Amino acid sequence: DAGITQSPRYKITETGRQVTLMCHQTWSHSYMFWYxxxxxxxxxxxxxxxxxxxxxxxxxxxxxVVSRSKTENFPLTLESATRSQTSVYFCASSEESSLPYNExxxxxxxxxxxx
Amino acid sequence: xxxxxxxxxxMFVQEKExxxxxxxxxxxxxxYGLFWYKQxxxxxxxxxxxxxSYDQQNATEGRYSLNFQKARKSxxxxxxxxQLGDSAMYFCAMREGDFNKFYFGxxxxxxxxx
Lengths: 115, 114
Known about the structure:
Oligomer: heterodimer
Distance between the termini of chain A: 33 Å
Shape of chain B: globular
Mean pLDDT of chain B: 93
Helix content of chain A: under 10%
Order of helices and strands of chain A: EEEEEEEEEEE
Number of strands of chain A: 11
Structural class of chain B: mainly beta
Number of helices of chain B: 0
Mean pLDDT of chain A: 92
Number of helices of chain A: 0
Largest interface: A-B, 29 and 28 residues
Radius of gyration of chain B: 14 Å
Strand content of chain B: over 45%
Radius of gyration of chain A: 13 Å
């Protein structure tokens, strides 16, 4: 199916464990993004990627690692999960554009709970 | 400084009435885009409306319109004739220049009462 998908949709893990959230898009968009959503904070950018093998930090990157070996995939890894990383994680993608109008398309989100 | 500020954490509106959700932004770039997204309780992010900094007219999409006041740096979302299905979180976002990053506000939770 075309679009942007995330897996798993729900995940419960324990403090200190490594967990990877997957994101896959079928549009061949250049840009991909990871956000976390917490009450009172809206969406905060964790990492983004302009193309395969090009990634950069966002507003809240500590404790997260990303990679992008293929254009369509952008996994997010929590190397040693902490309770403060309990959140809803959204992946998004967009085309590369120099025009101000450049909609971001969002995945359905992954709800992560760290016990 | 916050790039996007939404000062209304929650709002109530009566069904069939109009409601305005506030959004102010901060940028020194002359070229930028402003976006509104809706997030229903199911969690997905739904794009509603866009306003470009050079657009002369306020954007409209069906029952949604954007009250764009450039000098005041505000981009308020107006929903006319509210429906029960409009109950959701609403996020204002901005893209500056040719950077492909978005800045999001903290959101406004709208409740439409029957």
